[in-house]
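Hi support team,

I submitted a single chain yesterday and got back a structure, but I'm not sure I'm reading the token output correctly. Could someone confirm the output below corresponds to the sequence I sent? I've pasted both exactly as they appear in my results page.

Thanks,
R.
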Amino acid sequence: MSWQQIVCQTTSGLQDTIVDTMEAAGAVSITWQDTEDDPILEPKPGEMRLWDNLTITALYEETTDLAPLLLTLESHKAEWNIHALQHETVEDQPWERAWMDSFQPMCFGERLWIYPSWHEAPDDGTVKLLLDPGLAFGTGTHPTTALCLEWLDGEDLSGMDVLDYGCGSGILAIAALKLGANDAVATDIDPQALQATLDNAERNSINPSQLHTCYPEHLPSRTYDIVMANILAGPLVELSPVLLAALRPGGKLVLSGILATQAESIENAYKNALTDFAITQKDDWIRVAGTCR
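Hi R., thanks for writing in. Yes, this is the structure output for that exact sequence:
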């Protein structure tokens, strides 16, 4: 079976009209993508931002008559700011299998691996996390998460107490526990993140007594050997008093989610409180690490 696919490029603010028109023509699926690979950083609370330039892709059954839709889109090109329009036929394929095949086991450092659930993990003495790729919380595919996982792999975490601030999927807290940490607190403002962390901890056979999840306002009044935060530069600067106060003397701080161009603001917020201050870059992103004075 084949499918018909219409792809058009437009600008933010006009997408709803185009999507409504595509849906009215019988689209079985519609997806939005960023045309220019431009990241959206630090939206305001409750804000739903889109990229400035969007690529909208609509999929239709092979027998659907798309001539009226194409005529409508062509006639409104200027009004709807459509600057590229393409109609093509795509062959059917096992879409789920194609998606799964694109995610393979990933290694971070020398001993830490992340395995999707559909891959059998070998019994080879390495440390393994079972975590399926997803869109919302982090699975190791993004450079910021990879930077943190590589740092964890290079540390002796035996007996350490860990705070994962902005835990998302819980990947960093769970990795720390798998690598020998004594206990971990994972905190996030999103209830779905806290639930994802608990689900992933159960999948990885983490002892429930070793992992505590909570909202930031309910953090235990204590300090930690390691404080990790993989969020964004703006919140990291605002949270610097909180994160530094959570560190024990001699404890280690690890920060990521920071573009290389934002390094100076992070240095200004943290460098004076840390020794061994180090910046590591991967693609356009950096990791900052240091030891509490």
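A quick pointer for reading it: Residues 38-49 have pLDDT under 50 and may be disordered. Let us know if anything else looks off.

Best,
Support desk
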